[in-house]
Amino acid sequence: MQPRGGSFGSLEEGKESTTRITSQTNRSFPLRLLQFILLLLGIGIVFSVLSMYASWYIKVQNEVPMIHPKFQRCVQESKDIESWIKPPLNLSHYMNDTELFWRASFVPKIKEYPFKRTPKIAFMFLTRGPLPMAPLWERFFKGNEKLYSIYVHTFPSYRPDFPPSSVFYGRQIPSQVAEWGRMSMCDAERRLLANALLDISNEWFILLSEACIPLQNFSIIYRYISRSRFSFVGSFDEPGPYGRGRYNDKMSLEVNITDWRKGSQWFEVNRKLAVDIIRDTTYYPKFEKFCRPACYVDEHYFQTMLSIESPHLLANRSLTWADWSRGGAHPATFGKADIKDNLFQKIFDGELCLYNNQPTKLCFLFARKFAPSALDHLLEHSSKFFGY
Ligand SMILES: *[C@@H]1O[C@H](CO)[C@@H](O)[C@H](O)[C@H]1NC(C)=O
Ligand SMILES: *[C@@H]1O[C@H](CO)[C@@H](O)[C@H](O)[C@H]1NC(C)=O
Ligand SMILES: *[C@@H]1O[C@H](CO)[C@@H](O)[C@H](O)[C@H]1NC(C)=O
Ligand SMILES: *[C@@H]1O[C@H](CO)[C@@H](O)[C@H](O)[C@H]1NC(C)=O
Ligand SMILES: *[C@@H]1O[C@H](CO)[C@@H](O)[C@H](O)[C@H]1NC(C)=O
Predict the structure, then answer these.
(1) How far is CA 39 from CA 10, 28, 42, 166, in A?
(2) Which of 7-11, 68-72, 199-203 has the highest mean pLDDT?
(3) For the CA of 309, the nearest ligand
(4) pLDDT of residue 1
(5) Is the CB of 220 under 6 A from ligand 3?
(6) What pLDDT digit, counting tens, does each position of 273-284 carry?
(7) pLDDT score for 28
(8) Distance from residue 115's CA to the centre of ligand 2 (Å)
(9) Full set of structural domains in the chain with CATH
(10) 3-state DSSP: the chain helix, strand, coil percent, rounded to 5?
(11) Hey, whose CA ends up nearest to atom 3 of ligand 5?
(12) Which of 156, 259, 268, 351 has the highest CB neighbour number within 10 Å of its CB?
């Protein structure tokens, strides 16, 4: 038979097979019975598979853990602005530096905050371990809870034992070993800045050591920093061997010798400069490679970089006083016997400096270096010396 066209052909075939089955039915009854039994068997298998799946599904449903009320609240809160501006409750995290710096570099493009933002000062303590001056700082911070936050970078193995009532409790950030005069020191400072940047309320960032003390009460320090048009980064051009003498020609593409700066490690920067520091990939590799001891990178890297990028934002002086009068590589350390009225009078009556382009005698808000033995005397006279 010749096919006559697609649809007609198949119709004919269908007709043919129907006739064939009808004729077979009468011929082989046992075969029909077998088919029926197989069908029943098939249905049985399908049903048992379905019921197994159903019981598994119910079991899995029951195993889904109850959502803890705390997380339910998080889910709810993520709907309002609060959840985006709230600082992290717990400073511990599992980001490495690459991830942390990336996250910390987020900057809003809309400059007006659609909520009441009280700008805070981030006090960043860089220490090997203990903070012997903590009781003095506690007294200084008391009553100003909304205006500051604290971050502590220690040796990674160090476990501080501050009680929950302390302002330092739970303020240790994930830390790594930092060696004086090496890039790992600048890494630690960038790590402090990046962790502090995660709190959108932090507007000013001060680097301090365990040997630093505050020289004024909190309100004076807050007003001084918040009303300054410049950030307090010590930065000057020194011709001698300890200044330009540490410059390496191999970085001349990025840093001209005339741009080379030196200054104190203990800086204060605003949020813009803090982001500039943690996002830098231009100067970092050059300083890492070409500024190694006797080039002490923490005295040159941020100072030079910020002077090139944002000279108009820098006061070019540090807020932290130190006594270099003896000469040598380290400033004087003050112990118990040195804590006398005239020590602080010397600092307060010292040189003149510029504040918002006006001369002032109030040049230093912090001082170093103070030995643990000095603490008791400082606590005893803190109200007379410092007004807190
Ligand atoms: C951090 O982790 C990412 C992803 O694993 C990796 O690409 C990056 O190199 C790491 N950074 C550091 C500093 O270890
Ligand atoms: C922060 O979380 C870590 C674990 O992620 C925990 O060990 C630590 O005690 C917490 N710190 C505070 C202050 O709650
Ligand atoms: C801080 O010190 C200044 C000047 O000594 C004083 O006028 C002010 O009342 C002090 N503030 C507080 C909160 O003690
Ligand atoms: C450094 O700056 C000086 C003066 O601005 C200029 O004459 C000199 O060519 C510069 N050097 C390099 C290597 O760019
Ligand atoms: C700080 O020094 C830079 C040059 O490095 C200069 O442009 C800037 O005006 C100085 N800042 C102040 C407040 O004088």
Answers:
(1) 28, 17, 5, 77
(2) 199-203
(3) 5
(4) 41
(5) yes
(6) 999 999 999 999
(7) 61
(8) 29
(9) 88-108+117-386 (3.90.550)
(10) 45, 10, 45
(11) 311
(12) 268
